[in-house]
Amino acid sequence: MLLAACDPAQPDATGDTTSQLADDGYLEMVSTGVMEPVQTEGVSAVSFVPDTSTAWAGLVAVAPTEGGIDLFNADGESVHRMTGPRLWGLATAPGFQLRGEALPLLFGADRNTNLVRAFALLRDGPELIEAPIQPIGPQGDIASVCALGEGIGYVDLVVLSRGTSVEIWRVADDGGDLIGAERRARFDLPSPARSCVASDGAIYAASPAGGIFRFDEEGNVTAQIDGYASALAAGDFLGRPVLILSDGNSETLNVRDGTTLSPIGNVIVRDGFSIPGVDRPGALAATEASFGGASYQSGLVAIADEEDGRVRLVARETFARGITNVD
């Protein structure tokens, strides 16, 4: 487990105290939302599918450990369950277009077929259907996938192998019968990685052998620390790049500077108003996209609880203020 000390947090100018230092020295935050329970043994990955035209219609995508993908709205209601293979990693391309029409895509690593599977989101349902895509598979057995970035007409994915290799693939509509996929780069990390996340061009990966890496699209490692994490989330929080880690066993999240990987602090997510906290953080995701309402207009952080398999939400603004106060 990665640990870091915190300085006491102070209320902001408005007197906000939603984040404060616990008696044991960890930073406390509170849940602002929770996904309703479904029949699941646990969560292997979580991601966001925002809707830029109607913020409150954005979705939270969850990959249960037994397979498939569950979709929830921002109120925590289950709106669709797709049965299917177990997926490691969950990447989304909310703005993807096929033949000029909006067609959000979700991607997951299927270790049984050793390929990245693609699923198209039909928002009117909502409903997920498998998308016809050219094969995406790394040299060696696949480990996970994450989204690197989305542009006009394409999305770039980071694909991890179970060895040390990392590949970057570009998915785009090239007019063919299948959605196009082309490998843009391949390089090796100092040790094998099993999970990854990207933010503002920086890629982060966690190794089961111990080690967290920050590297660029050419494979240059720009920061590295010892330690173990099973899930990662990253983003800009009040102008500062931040990396959030969980190990799937402890009761805290470890928060680090996204550039240097130096510690910021450890976070415990407590019960909110009639909303359960997080006992054992697992899969993670963060988004800057608005999901509507006063709490969610600046984005969200999603945290799966290994104890009950349900995903909690923390308003991004609350999370940002909390980690800013301790540094």
From TrEMBL:
InterPro entries from the UniProt entry: 6-blade_b-propeller_TolB-like, B-propeller_Phytase
Parts forming coiled coils: none
Residues of the BPP domain: 19-323
Region (Disordered): 1-20
Gene3D superfamilies with a match to the protein in the record: TolB, C-terminal domain
Stated name of the protein: BPP domain-containing protein
